[in-house]
Every structure is written in C-alpha cells, then in structure tokens.
Amino acid sequence: MKCLFEILKRKRGSVKSAPSHLTKQLSHKWDNIKKCFSEFSKHDSDEHLVRIESNLKPFVDQLRSLTRFLCLDQSVLILLETPGKKSTQLVYHQLKNFIDFLCIKAFKNFDLSSGSTLSIHKYLQDFPGLVHFIYVDRKTHRVVAPTLDLGSKQCLISADKLWKMVDMGQQYLHDGYLQIIWKDSTFSYSYFCWFENSSGAPLKPSRTPVNAMEYVSIPGILCGDFYQRLISKCFVKKSGGAGGGGLSGVKCYELYCVHLSLATSSCILEHTRRLAATVWEVSGIPSVNTDFV
Questions:
Q1: What would the pLDDT profile of 171-213 be if each residue is shown by its tens digit?
Q2: Where's the FUZ/MON1/HPS1 third Longin domain (predicted)?
Q3: What are the residue boundaries of the structural domains of the chain, listed by start?
Q4: Residue 195 · residue 205 · CB < 8 Å
C-alpha cells in the first residue's frame, strides 16, 4: 500500500491521475484497518477481529473504485487520441495508392476460401428472421460472427445497436443471469450463456450465479478471466467428473442473436439451439481468435 500511495502521489496532476477524494478515502480506510490490527495484536479479542472484518469490505470496495477509474475508465482514450489520429493519417496516406488493389484482393481471397468464410446468406436461409449472431467460445475466447457491411443500405442493423446488445448481455451476465430476451420496435435481441463438458454434453450449474458475481470484475479478460470465475461460482462443488476433469473440463459458451421483432420466443430458442449445434460445422475450427462466417 505504501508503494501504491507513492505512485498515486507522483502521478498527481497528470491527465489520468486519481481524484483526490478517492485517494483520501482509500488512505483513511487503510489507516482504520492498520489501527484495528494494532488493537487486535494487543488485546486478541473477538470484538477487535470483528472490527477488522467490518473495515475490510469498505477498504476493498474503495480499492476497486480506484482500480476501475485508473484501468477501466474510458477517459484514458484521451491520452491516445492525438497520437492515434496522427498514426491513422500516416498509414492512410501511405496506403492511399493501394486501397483499391487491397480491397479487390481481400474480396477475392474471401470468395475463394472454404468453410470458414461460407456465404452468410446461404447459411441464414435456414434461420428465417435471423439478422445477425455472435458465437463466443469462452474457453479460448474465439469469436464466430457473420460479416456485415455496415455501410451498405442492405444492412439491416447498425453497429451501435450491436454494441448495445453486447453491453446489455454482459450487464445481465454480471448480475448473474445466463439467458435474456428483449426487443425494441425493430428487432428482438437474445443472449445465452451455457456450459458443456469436454465431451460436448451440457452441464447444469450446481447453483445460480445471481447475486454471486457482485465482487467479480466486469465480463471480459482484461481484468482477469471473468468466465473462469463464473464457472467457479456456478460449479462450486464440482471436483472431478462429468467427463471433464473438474473445473478445468468445464467449457463456457455465449451466443448473441438479433432477430426481426416479429420472431417469437419459441422461434428464437429453436434457432439458438440449432446455431449452437451447427455453427462450428459451418465455420470449421478457426485458426485465429476471430472467425467470420
């Protein structure tokens, strides 16, 4: 903690420095804990032990708030905005004379590829009403998703709506909900998270993660692997079995779907089951972390 406070003091006044009230509150809570430990070492009573435990949670919460501000706050992009724009302009001018050639080459390679780049239109014919989907293997963090030309008039959905769908799904997942369906005036959105063993058989969580993820970082892999923690919360008593060798054999998958708003819940559930069962047959085993159907 001493090193942390020294670093925060040195960074004071920079663009990404911590607000003074956060550091002061953290320092105050840390002083309380040290005082409680000092009293406990002198008296060794249950009362002082309870005081330590009661002060630990506010301290951890304050430390989390400081970490979120320093590591997760989007304002950190301010630091990268100027050099990022300069780099973008430099690369653009250097590639300007080759853009048309590279676009033609890319589409040519796309059309000549095999299963991993199968036409989305042919695949979606078996899923009437389905506009888009995102399939994620959280064991390897690999993504399978159809390609979308968001600038085309034929594209039915915007990037903004797709990201809002992902944000909504992750928000409910962080609250402990593994399935959700919602809609607006144009589309129906759905998010599903499920578990399988190493043989591909579905696994039912031994307990619901609702209210169990309160102190776990937001979904993702930047602040530790959220999904491994989710597995440990859902299969707390699992030691070895279910064909998967304990927790290491539990695989987690996610599926986001966008349907036209007329699609019924039963239709969405049926499409979800079929997508989960067939998407890898269509795309093949990906060689990279992002595979576009």
A1: 899 888 899 999 999 999 999 999 998 888 889 888 777 766 6
A2: 129-281
A3: 119-237+248-282
A4: yes
DSSP code of residue 218: P
Q: In CATH, what number does 119-237+248-282 get? A: 3.30.450
Beta pairing class for 142-145 and 290-292: parallel
Supply angle C-alpha 283, 287, 84, rounded to 5: 105
Residue 143 half-sphere exposure toward CB, CA atoms < 13 A: 10
Cα gap 287→102, rounded to integer Å? 22
Strands 130-137 and 142-145 come out as antiparallel
Closest CA to 139 of 72, 191, 194: 194
* Residue range 35-75, pLDDT digits in tens: 888 888 888 788 878 888 888 888 888 888 887 777 766 66
Q: Determine contact, residues 141/289, Cβ cutoff 8 Å.
A: yes
Q: By the 8 A CB rule, do 133 and 256 touch?
A: yes
Contact predicate 169/191, CB 8 Å = yes
